[in-house]
């Protein structure tokens, strides 16, 4: 697992090669504020090979955060991350590995009858109760998440996942009330607290797409303060003095800035944004879609672009994401080692200061 000594040693190997605050505190150590994602791409050996080379280049070049999920690319991404961890000339203790569970995963490719295959594997003879299944593919019940942790440890070839996310819990709102979703999250958090206690999970959190950046009247809204309170209750139930809830993941970029601009959460008698609540509660934020899934590589809005450091639009977009308050790391996925080098080089430029960042929205 990632350790204080391992991650600080990783930081020190790069000396002054990166800009101010490129490495940031997370858990027992530090992480790069640009991280490696593994979401996009076909479920093919060619894409596997590209990702493996890109991940190795990133790990050896200054990124010590790798993010994946049990269902990414039909389950292939976790295996590729495991191979890259073995191949890279970087100690495992220097790397924060994050993965997710919530969507029922395929095993290498998409079968001819996806629904039947998932039902046979996970429902008929597996850990999923049909009552907990939404849209035929999503479950966050404790038994399923427990099974997915085991699956991820095996696919990644590691003894510990440093951060384990419950994946897109707002999907459950299609058929359940918010109260029921909070209840199930708390039950699953109890299971994850036990995994933290056993040393198999370093910390856990929630990865969302809509939930934390939408206001309370939106169908997909979940309250971040409530979710964190349920995690604290779970820790108390298990008998742990320290809650294992460590981070959230959500989309954030210059054209999807709702996590900063939308006052979506009731917190201490006022309405606050997701990033403001995370900052107040000392919860780390990892941003997904930091390049708007590639849309920003052709350029940013002129008024914003002029304020940011970076030689390319991609670098400036990443520097916008990692300039936001509470953001620990901006994730970006690519299976091209040259693009990884470009993305990592964003960290040689300083991020915006708080006043300059706020001024972008004035």
TrEMBL record:
<feature type="domain" description="NADP-dependent oxidoreductase">
    <location>
        <begin position="34"/>
        <end position="210"/>
    </location>
</feature>
<dbReference type="InterPro" id="IPR020471">
    <property type="entry name" value="AKR"/>
</dbReference>
<dbReference type="InterPro" id="IPR036812">
    <property type="entry name" value="NAD(P)_OxRdtase_dom_sf"/>
</dbReference>
<protein>
    <submittedName>
        <fullName>Aldo/keto reductase</fullName>
    </submittedName>
</protein>
<dbReference type="Pfam" id="PF00248">
    <property type="entry name" value="Aldo_ket_red"/>
</dbReference>
<dbReference type="InterPro" id="IPR023210">
    <property type="entry name" value="NADP_OxRdtase_dom"/>
</dbReference>
């Amino acid at each position: 697992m990632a350790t204080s000594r391992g991650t600080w040693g990783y930081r020190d190997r790069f000396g002054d090669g990166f800009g101010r605050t490129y490495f940031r505190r997370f858990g027992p150590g530090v992480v790069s504020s640009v991280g490696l994602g593994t979401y996009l791409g076909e479920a093919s050996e060619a894409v596997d090979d590209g990702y493996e080379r890109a991940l190795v280049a990133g790990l050896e070049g200054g990124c010590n955060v790798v993010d994946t999920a049990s269902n990414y690319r039909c389950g292939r991404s976790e295996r590729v991350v495991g191979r890259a961890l073995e191949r890279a000339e970087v100690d495992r203790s220097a790397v924060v590995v994050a993965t997710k569970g919530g969507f029922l995963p395929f095993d290498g490719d998409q079968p001819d009858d996806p629904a039947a295959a998932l039902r046979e594997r996970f429902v008929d003879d597996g850990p999923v109760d049909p009552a907990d299944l939404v849209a035929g593919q999503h479950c966050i019940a404790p038994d399923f998440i427990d099974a997915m942790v085991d699956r991820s440890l095996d696919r990644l070839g590691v003894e510990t996942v440093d951060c384990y996310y419950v994946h897109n819990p707002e999907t459950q709102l299609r058929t359940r009330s918010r109260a029921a979703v909070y209840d199930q999250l708390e039950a699953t958090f109890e299971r994850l607290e036990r995994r933290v206690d056993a040393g198999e999970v370093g910390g856990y959190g929630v990865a969302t797409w809509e939930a934390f950046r939408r206001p309370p009247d939106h169908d997909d809204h979940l309250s971040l303060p409530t979710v964190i309170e349920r995690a604290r209750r779970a820790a108390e139930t298990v008998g742990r003095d320290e809650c294992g809830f460590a981070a959230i993941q959500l989309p954030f970029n210059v054209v999807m800035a709702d996590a900063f601009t939308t006052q979506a959460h009731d917190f201490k008698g006022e309405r606050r944004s997701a990033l403001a609540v995370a900052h107040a509660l000392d919860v780390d934020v990892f941003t997904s879609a930091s390049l708007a899934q590639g849309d920003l590589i052709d350029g940013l809005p002129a008024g914003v672009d002029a304020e940011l450091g970076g030689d390319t639009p991609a670098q400036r977009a990443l520097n916008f994401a990692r300039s936001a308050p509470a953001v620990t790391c901006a994730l970006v996925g690519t299976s091209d080692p040259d693009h990884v080098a470009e993305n990592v080089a964003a960290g040689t430029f300083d991020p915006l200061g708080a006043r300059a960042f706020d001024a972008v929205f004035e």
